[in-house]
Write a structure and sequence with these properties.
Structural class: alpha+beta
Distance between the termini: 54 Å
Oligomer: single chain
Strand content: 15-25%
Number of strands: 22
Length: 479
């Protein structure tokens, strides 16, 4: 349930109380937008200093590829009407999934049917455009360069009364009182430690270690290049391959290239090593581009150890406390779900607030943590099931998992030839359809009528107009 940014804030529901949000990244900004419609005051605390579109230290993944899935677009647009038109005006690219070249499970996938749009831009641009809308919310205060050092609770430690914070370059701390505290401070959240300091047991965690390493760089798009696609993704065939590469358009006619490897097989950050990593991918397209494209930035790296869930739904939290975003659940970034899951968490919070009794926050935390855990269950299962294809990744593999992996392999084979199958995969990826769509009778029939063997879909065009033509192969006219 989205809220209209032009409507009066319904602060009467909770009697004019104060909500504090820890962390000013995507999850924190969306949560603050939701809370502003239900509280008299909302304060958003951010440890870093925002400076336009420059990357922030607290968001190391900012320099890597970020696409917005359709589900996220729909939810975020509901909270900030007109935002995506504004984003495109600022330089973001919008394109249809039918314009994406995608190599997966050993084949070029058939182009999906039109209808699913993607927005690609640098993460700093995305954050800055959304953050630029926050000052329009009259009851929302943003405090940069503020670090929360602990929670403030009542004498029985059953109720959170606020936070103790320290402003940058100051030794003294101060207490900011609140009726609700929301932790959206990311994967490195100190909430587990803060709760232990209050006498609570350590929150249970689930990990599926995949040891992903990223290396990203911006390039100027070559003017002599002809393609029939706007974005390119080359994924590995697990478990025999671990390396991937992706190229997406961002602002100022620039390409953002991200290469990644799982299980410690990480791309290097030196010039020769980065190019050699691209050459090792199962298709030559990215390598041929990087040989010719003009690099614009150094190579930025980032490491992601594991899928991680903190099961706050299993812990009896003090009243007046919520945890969401990566502070609660952090997925393998290869699947591009992070922003969408933050939007879903904000939407879940909105639903919980809408039914909360007037003037009473009791039970809100428990209800929210339970509902958001349910929302995350299926995406968690889908993401970790993909990672568990690698034998060295530890995690549960029940009998049904083995059966589903065999069926999924058949669907991936069929997706190379069948645009209906590839479109349904795209809908699942964009979270506009349930994964149960893939086991519908129609999809089962398509899966088992598929031809086996190599060949796959039609390779994408990659032609450099100043290079001599070559015959054969999936890359045309590269020297």
């Amino acid at each position: 349930m989205a809220v209209d940014s032009t409507s009066p804030h319904s602060s009467k529901r909770f009697g004019g109380r104060h909500a504090v949000v820890i962390g000013g990244s995507m999850a924190g900004m969306l949560a603050s937008r939701v809370l502003s419609a239900h509280f008299e005051r909302v304060t958003l605390l951010e440890r870093d200093r925002h400076s336009g579109t420059e990357p922030r230290k607290g968001v190391p993944q900012e320099q890597h590829a970020h696409g917005l899935l359709k589900k996220a677009v729909d939810l975020i647009e509901g909270y900030f009407p007109g935002l995506f038109e504004q984003l495109v005006s600022a330089g973001a690219n919008v394109w249809d999934m039918s314009e994406a070249a995608w190599f997966h499970f050993g084949n070029w996938q058939a182009r999906s049917q039109p209808g699913l749009t993607m927005y690609t831009q640098s993460r700093p641009l995305l954050d800055s455009v959304i953050r630029g809308r926050l000052p329009d919310i009259h009851n929302l205060t943003l405090l940069d360069e503020c670090e929360v050092v602990k929670l403030v609770a009542n004498e029985t430690r059953s109720l959170i009364r606020g936070v103790e914070l320290r402003r940058r370059k100051q030794e003294a701390t101060e207490v900011l009182e609140a009726d609700l505290v929301v932790d959206a401070s990311g994967r490195g959240s100190r909430m587990p430690r803060w709760l232990e300091d209050l006498g609570l047991p350590r929150v249970e965690e689930s990990h599926v270690r995949i040891e992903v390493g990223y290396a990203s760089r911006r390039y100027r798009k070559p003017k002599n290049l002809v393609t029939n696609w706007k974005a390119l993704s080359i994924y590995p065939t697990p478990p025999k391959e671990t390396r991937m590469g992706a190229l997406s358009p961002i602002e100022e006619d620039i390409w953002l290239v991200s290469q990644a490897g799982s299980l410690g097989d990480h791309p290097p950050n030196d010039e020769a090593g980065y190019l050699e990593f691209a050459r090792s991918l199962p298709q030559p397209h990215l390598y041929e581009i990087l040989k010719r494209a003009e690099p614009l930035t150094p190579i930025a790296t980032h490491k992601f150890p594991s899928n991680m869930r903190r099961h706050y739904e299993r812990l009896k939290l003090p009243e007046g406390l919520l945890v969401l975003g990566d502070a609660m659940c952090s997925f393998n970034p290869l699947y591009g779900q992070g922003i969408t899951l933050s939007a879903l968490a904000a939407n879940t919070l909105e639903g919980c607030l809408a039914v909360q009794p007037q003037g009473d926050l009791a039970g809100l935390g428990a209800r929210f943590q339970s509902k958001v855990a349910s929302v995350l269950e299926l995406p968690w299962l889908m993401a970790t099931s993909e990672d568990l294809i690698y034998p060295s990744v530890e995690g549960p593999r029940p009998l049904w998992w083995k059966m589903m992996q065999g069926y999924a392999s058949r669907l991936h084979e069929r997706a190379a030839y069948d645009s209906v199958v590839s479109t349904n995969f795209a809908k699942m990826m964009h979270m506009t359809s349930s994964p149960l769509l893939l086991v519908s009778p129609q999809m089962v029939m398509r899966a088992f009528s598929a031809p086996r063997g190599s060949g796959g879909g039609t390779p994408p065009v990659l032609q450099f107009t100043d290079a001599p033509a070559q015959s054969g192969g999936s890359v045309a006219n590269v020297g």
